[in-house]
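Hey L., structure's done. Input below.
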Amino acid sequence: ISERISRKLAAQKQDLKKCQDKEKLKRCGDIIYANLYAIEKGQSSVVLTDFYDEMQPQIEIKLDPRLNGVQNAQKYYNEYRKADTAEKMLTTLIESGEAEQIYIDSVFDALVRAGSEAELTAIREELSQQRYIRKKSEKKQMKSSVPFIKYISSDGFLILSGRNNLQNDKLTLKDSAKGDIWF
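Output:
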């Protein structure tokens, strides 16, 4: 699962890099609109002045020969909007993918530290609830509760820790008292 998430994140980051040239697309559309008089249908490219640059250099802009000047400008604007939307969506997807990667790494860590079949069963249950793996048949299975990890601090306070994410949630949301301290 971790490798699949890593590959997906790498592909999304690669796609995000492609979206970085979106402003150039908008600039080309603006330059074409400003110079509609110099563009005729059938041209495959045109050399125009880049009025966005202080030096106002001549730049070559590729055109679709089947389209007129307005249609070519619209094509650049459409590509700009598509890249802008893709950038926003990819940013959100990458953030959620990175959070998923952190979660899977924490489950893997719990799996490595598991010392009993009951702990492995709890991890399987968590993964099936998150829909990473399929549940086995829904026969009435006796859930053996794995106890929390207990520590005693040097000051004599009882410290409880879950063995996995589900246990941490149970400890936090169900077994906690109002005056408990969390860290």
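DSSP finds five helices and four strands in the chain. The helical segments are 2-18, 22-34, 69-113, 117-129, 165-173.

-- N.
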